[in-house]
Design goal:
alpha/beta; Rossmann fold; Helicase, Ruva Protein, domain 3; Zinc Finger, Delta Prime, domain 3; 3 domains; five-stranded parallel sheet; 17 helices; elongated
């Protein structure tokens, strides 16, 4: 996300604004910008005097405004952070907007508005757009997930193999905060000159290198029923580490990628597939025609509905996966 990296670059260069509005549905980016700002602006010796933190649920705007209008005592800036701003009401946002129209240069107000996108029509948005910095973030697309893991690993000076990246992507999913935490944990546990492999992922993250969603889709794609059946038995025994919703999501994504290969070709960048695996995906795509792949996606979606108790009697995860597997091998 270009806006995120541009804002992060400004912060690293000590180019600060008196106002920040960080909003959207991907908390990782909001938390990263907030951390970058506080690391630069808030120091231990002045924290008690020149730093205030509020939460939308437990705060009123008058208290926030009182803090933001104070002059710093020790630091260059008086820093005020408002978390969970989405819990404030519209009247309180209007009061903040009045301040944002003419903010004090010695104070920095950071507003974190998570799980929603802030309404651009609001006075506060327009005022901060004029006098501060805005960041609106959304979850990354599925084809961006593996490149994101690879890039984040590089940022952390971690060497990681394509298979290990794929395991993290299929097991953790698109929760960027969780992925970042797993990568940081691996960095602490593994020497910098060692390439992280599936063995490290199995040992330190708790993902079996032989029995996981990635190996399941591979077995299905290559027509190995016994192997696929063996994997789902393991997944059913270890449901805490392998939730059904994540397994089904990965399978739907897999068939979607195969469908795209059949329709638009096998450009790995467009598909979000590491070039290390592209031949494997192409081989799997050859086994199916377009109708079969579309039907496979329908079966996975039907299984997802059953897992939620929709249009079906109550079934266990084991029953849902076994039924799905039989359907996929009889397309």
């Amino acid at each position: 996300m270009q806006a995120f990296f541009s804002l992060l670059s400004k912060i690293e260069k000590n180019q600060f604004s008196p106002l920040y509005l960080l909003s959207g549905t991907e908390p990782f980016y909001i938390d990263t910008i907030l951390k970058a700002l506080t690391n630069k602006l808030v120091h231990e010796e002045s924290k008690a005097f020149d730093f205030s933190q509020f939460y939308g649920k437990d705060s009123n705007v008058n208290g926030i405004l009182e803090s933001v209008k104070r002059y710093p005592m020790i630091s260059k800036f008086n820093v005020v952070v408002l978390k969970e701003a989405q819990l404030l009401n519209s009247i309180e946002f209007d009061l903040l907007a009045s301040y944002a129209q003419n903010p004090l240069p010695q104070s920095i107000l950071i507003i974190c508005y998570k799980n929603k996108i802030f309404d651009k029509r609001k006075k506060l948005y327009k005022a901060i757009d004029k006098n501060g910095d805005l960041l609106t973030v959304k979850p990354i697309y599925e084809n961006q997930l593996n490149p994101w893991i690879e890039n984040q690993a590089k940022n952390l000076n971690i060497n990681i193999s394509p298979v290990a990246i794929e395991l993290l992507a299929t097991h953790v999913g698109s929760n960027l905060s969780s992925l970042d935490n797993e990568l940081k944990k691996l960095k602490l546990l593994i020497s910098e000159d060692v390439i992280i492999t599936e063995e490290h992922i199995e040992k330190h993250v708790g993902i079996s290198k032989k029995f996981n969603s990635f190996e399941l889709q591979k077995a299905i794609g290559l027509g190995r029923f016994s192997r696929a059946f063996q994997i789902i038995q393991y997944l059913n025994i270890n449901t805490k580490e392998n939730p059904l919703i994540l397994t089904l999501g990965n399978l739907h994504s897999y068939f979607q990628k195969l469908l795209l290969i059949k329709g638009v070709g096998s450009d790995h960048k467009t598909l979000g597939i590491n070039p290390f695996f592209i031949n494997e995906y192409k081989a799997a795509a050859k086994r199916f025609n377009m109708r079969q792949l579309a039907l496979a996606m329908d079966h996975v979606m039907e299984a997802d509905l059953k897992s939620k108790g929709i249009n079906s009697k109550s079934l266990t995860s084991k029953e849902i996966l076994e039924e799905l597997l039989l359907k996929l091998f009889n397309l």
